[in-house]
Fold this protein.
Amino acid sequence: MSATRQAPRDQDGFPVRGLAVTYPDRYRIERHTHPWAQLVYAAGGVMRVVTPQATWLTPPTRAIWVPGGTPHEIEMRGAVAMRTLYLAPAPGDARLDACRAIEVAPLLRELILHMVRIGMMTEGDPAHERLEAILIDLLAAAETAPLELPLPSDPRARGFADRLLADPSSGAALSDLARGSGASLRTLQRLFLAETGLALDAWRGRARMQQALASLGAGASVTQAALDAGYQGPSAFIAAFKRAFGTTPSRYRFRPS
């Protein structure tokens, strides 16, 4: 299931607009662009957000900041309660120039939900302008979450990346998966290193960790997150997770949000 969603039309008087929509599993918003910046956030469920340069798999404790003019698509993983904000073009803040995953602290979460309930913020309304200023400050200061996965641009490597992302739990060897990709495994390894800065094995490992973060953020147990990320059991997964993020998955799962 898919659709093309456009941001609200740019009209004077509404510097920030909120949208609340519930989507079913695997619903896809096809690639599109708009002049408004967008904060892609879900109060429940996991989303995959893709731009030409990178992909993010984000749980409810995270959001993706997408600057205006950035092509992007969104796929739902499970039922998703999207609570998104659009921000009108404004003088640039260097802290918000690039796409990134951000930590959604409790204050930011409540502000997002409050602004979505309002729907359309009115320019010139002092209360609305105060809310907008707080929002910008919180977004700019928010900690960047380690969820970004760079994507190769070569069509053969990009197709191979999409296959890995479609099933991060697969235990198939890279040599087996490379068959039918239009390039040898050695060529794919060279392309991934040149275009993403990561060796192919490291790229696959980061994709698995991205899935693990999303699973844990959505409430999965450590064992289930390990299986979702392609590990046969929790021991190796815990070690890999700690190397990647400096903490154990159980501590990550139960950290204060």
